[in-house]
Write a structure and sequence with these properties.
about 200 residues; single chain; 8 helices; mainly alpha
């Protein structure tokens, strides 16, 4: 009888089911996940793993130490001038988008380097910490780009995006923006240095 869509299904003979081969159940596999033995692994994969670990630790140490290398090497007058310069530059960012001005970035970077020379435990520390963590979730912070001399000779696109984000955030939220928070921290430092 040919297979026909409209033909009802007949019950099968139970003796036919006994002839279906069923493979035996394998032993319990629980707890036997894949293991990675580095001694027997591919040498290229080992090198990649070790290289990744070295780069990770290098980034951790440089991030933790790069802003602390010359702490305390600047005089109070130099630090006070740098604070004043940063305040003026950030105030200018409130009114005008500075992403197309490489000289602005260079002046900000130069003042930042002077600020990094401030002695520890001065009121500039909260601003430095904020700049080293802003914006969150990005590969590099504002402090990173300023530390690596973003400016006339090197003007990375993500740094320009950070400046634009600061300006636009101020335009939209005024006193509740990140730029206003940075300026408030700078004002605290200015009052410490009597500026």
């Amino acid at each position: 009888m040919p297979d026909d869509f409209f033909t009802p299904i007949r019950p099968t003979d139970p003796s036919d089911q006994s002839r279906i081969p069923i493979p035996p159940i394998e032993a319990d596999k629980q707890g036997k996940g894949p293991t990675f033995d580095l001694d027997q692994d591919d040498p290229r994969r080992q090198n990649l793993l070790y290289g990744s670990l070295v780069l990770f630790f290098k980034k951790m140490f440089t991030t933790a130490l790069f802003s602390r290398t010359n702490r305390g090497s600047k005089s109070e007058i130099e630090v006070a001038q740098a604070i004043r310069t940063i305040k003026d530059l950030l105030t200018a960012l409130k009114t005008c988008d500075q992403t197309d001005n490489p000289h602005y970035a260079q002046h900000l970077s130069d003042a930042w380097h002077t600020l990094l020379g401030a002695p520890p435990k001065t009121p500039v520390e909260p601003f430095i910490q904020l700049a080293n963590t802003y914006p969150s979730g990005e590969a590099h912070s504002l402090g990173f780009y300023l530390t690596h001399y973003a400016g006339d000779h090197w003007l990375p696109f993500p740094f320009l995006e950070i400046l634009k984000k600061l300006h636009q955030g101020y335009v939209l939220r005024k006193s509740h923006s990140e730029l206003s928070h940075m300026l408030a921290l700078i004002d605290e430092a200015c009052s410490y240095f009597s500026l």
